[in-house]
Amino acid sequence: MTIPSTTERRVRRAHLATTVLVTAICGVALLVTMLVVAGDLPDRLATHFDQSGTANDDLSRGMALTMFGLVGVGLPALLIAVFAATEWWRGEGARAFSGFLAGLPVGLSTLFAGLVLANRGAGAPDQVRLSPWVILPALGLAVVVGVVVALLVPRGLPRPAPETVTPVVLAPTERASWFGRVEMGRLPMVAMVAGVLVMVFATLVSGLWWLWLVTALVVLPIVAVTSFVVTVDRSGVTWRSALGLPRGHLPLERITDAGVVDVSPAEFGGLGLRMKPGALGLVTRSGSALQVTHGKKRFVATVDDPATGAGLLLGYLQAGDRTTR
């Protein structure tokens, strides 16, 4: 299916312009809020609260406002840049993903604006209390904006038709193996490293020791889902991360088909190891990927040279059919 260039530009522009515009409006609104109340803010702002809403930690005013801006607007802007490189506006999940990219800055900026207003006029951080009415409107507004954007932007561009895969012909006693690597692209990797560095910076500046634990909990999953090895052999399909875990195996007797499809991270809701109803994906980029069907479920991996892996798997399936006849 050939998509007219005008249609492709229109869809791309709609998704990009909408999410960028919403993020920019949130940035302006958060900045205006900070400027309006800056003179009424104490030297240190309450930034962390316990379950009762009582402040239990704080940061200097300048550092707190900087962090609010970086997380509330900088993070969503970075996500838009990363996923723009993967062309998230392609595929069935494009509208929902645009809704997420629009709702995220709305929720975060509303939350941080509420924190700024909660600190207004406080004599000390321990006098600040966080009301549920600061969190609930942020969550509700994020959901509303996300749903509206998802309904307004056009449907995602259809993915290209699956490639034709030629099965590898195997003799009855012949055995072969194929190895493919799934690796995160440069831009997403840079974005993840930047996110980790921001967390390290925040930990060093704030002096909160427990943030080191949070940073470690973020770094380990990132390392575990940025590089995978996929193996196709007589036993079926095996995959594992660079750390050895997570890992998985699809026995050959359960596999019903294999092929090459064009995928986008938006279809799986992001990058890395992704799960959705009926599908498991190792998705680190946009483009061609190995797809293995087993019953009503499928396994998708953005490996290099997926046609060779699919061809070998089809060869084993055909060899098994010849053996059982």
Mean pLDDT: 82
Structural class: alpha+beta
Span between termini: 38 Å
Largest β-sheet summary: 5 strands, mixed
| Helical proportion, percent range | 40-55%
| Net shape | elongated
- The arrangement of helices and strands along the chain is HEEHHHEHHEEEEEEEEH
Amount of beta strand:
15-25%
Count structural domains.
Answer: 2
Low-confidence stretches: 321-325
Radius of gyration: 24 Å
Q: If you had to describe this structure to a student in words, what would you say it looks like?
A:
The strands form three sheets. Strands 7-10-11-9-8 form a five-stranded mixed β-sheet, with helices on one face. It has a four-stranded antiparallel β-sheet with strand order 3-4-5-6. It has a two-stranded antiparallel ribbon with strand order 1-2. It is an alpha+beta fold and 325 residues long. It folds into two domains: 5-152, no CATH class; 178-184 and 226-324, PH-domain like. It is built from seven helices and eleven strands. β5 (236-241) and β6 (247-251) form a beta hairpin.
